[in-house]
Design a protein that fits this description.
By secondary structure, this protein is mostly helical. Helix content is about 55%, strand content about 0%.
């Protein structure tokens, strides 16, 4: 019976022909480049415009004030986040996060509300008395104003890009929040959040973090980009899959004991590292390195070749099929 033998078949059953590898490489590169330019021009990149502060403040003024109030009273997504931004506990997952500590300090009450309003007061002097009254009040009095404003905001009406608030004992907070809304709608909020003494500004941390929480989650949910929607492998505004090679990563997040854990990111990262190490060292792990031979997938793939191109057993030693 004839059997496949790699040394005999590879060296004696194939015809060698001259080839210009450089020419093939160059021609392939040119073809791929031309197709990329053509298809990009026809279909464009399916990417939505960025969610900007001014657009959100104009389209969702009440939502903007809700975010700002959370930053002011310490209940917002970043205000109580925890390391590496501050000493909160809202998003602390594991001991490693606590050990790293606050390496990118962000204190939203100051950075997201009071400091931008201080800059805006140079253009709108009516904000100065309200700011002075708030900053010189006791923490207890500030909390009373903040709660009163929150109650009023729950019953507020939206008229275009304006928020009509009912009366309430919220002191200077009403003037401050309306001033912050005007600053956000003007497009100057991003610059106020990312101010730096350096000549060139490359740190956009505060502007990126300001809309964390409900604004970004709402935008992601409409596009099916949230974690529980397998969003990491979806493409924006496209009828075809996105980065399918991230399937393993997002599949790990769907495991109940990881998805519902407080340290979901740490567990997912650790599980992904274990999968990576198993795949990398598979040829040396006993049992796993025998799977290809035991499963015999290669025989299924090469069955036609084995049937028609088997070397004579007399040409050399044979191997089992």
């Amino acid at each position: 019976m004839r059997h496949y033998h790699p040394r005999i078949d590879v060296t004696h059953r194939y015809r060698y022909v001259p080839a210009d590898f450089v020419k093939h490489l160059l021609s392939t590169t040119l073809v791929v480049a031309a197709l990329t330019a053509l298809l990009s021009g026809l279909f464009h990149e399916p990417v939505r415009p960025a969610l900007k502060i001014d657009a959100y403040a104009t389209q969702h003024p009440k939502g903007f004030l809700t975010v700002a109030l959370g930053d002011l009273n310490g209940t917002g997504a970043i205000a109580n986040y925890g390391p590496p931004y501050n000493h909160g506990t809202g998003s602390v997952q594991d001991i490693i996060q606590q050990w790293v500590g606050v390496i990118h300090p962000v204190y939203p009450k100051q950075a997201f509300v009071l400091e931008p309003l201080a800059y805006a007061a140079h253009l709108d002097p009516t904000l100065t008395p309200a700011l002075n009254q708030f900053t010189h009040a006791s923490p207890a009095q500030q909390a009373l104003w903040e709660r009163a404003f929150g109650t009023a905001l729950d019953h507020a009406r939206v008229q275009g890009s304006h928020v009509l608030l009912p009366g309430g004992a919220y002191g200077p907070v009403g003037t401050m929040m309306q001033g912050l809304l005007h600053l956000g709608q003007s497009g100057l909020m991003t610059g106020a959040l990312d101010r730096s003494p350096a000549d060139y500004q490359f740190d956009n941390q505060n502007a990126l973090l300001f809309l964390q929480g409900h604004p970004l989650h709402s935008a992601a949910k409409k596009l099916e980009l949230e974690g529980n929607q397998w969003g990491i492998i979806h493409e924006e505004r496209a009828p075809y899959p996105g980065p399918w090679w991230m399937t393993i990563v997002t599949a790990i997040y769907q495991l109940p004991f990881i998805a519902n854990a407080s340290a979901a990111d740490a567990l997912a990262l650790g599980a992904g590292m274990v999968v990576f190490l198993v795949l990398m060292f598979a040829p040396w792990i006993p049992g796993i390195n025998r799977l290809p031979r035991l499963l015999g997938v290669h025989r299924l793939i090469w069955r036609n070749y084995y049937a028609t191109h088997q070397a004579d057993s007399s040409d050399g030693p044979s191997v089992p099929s």
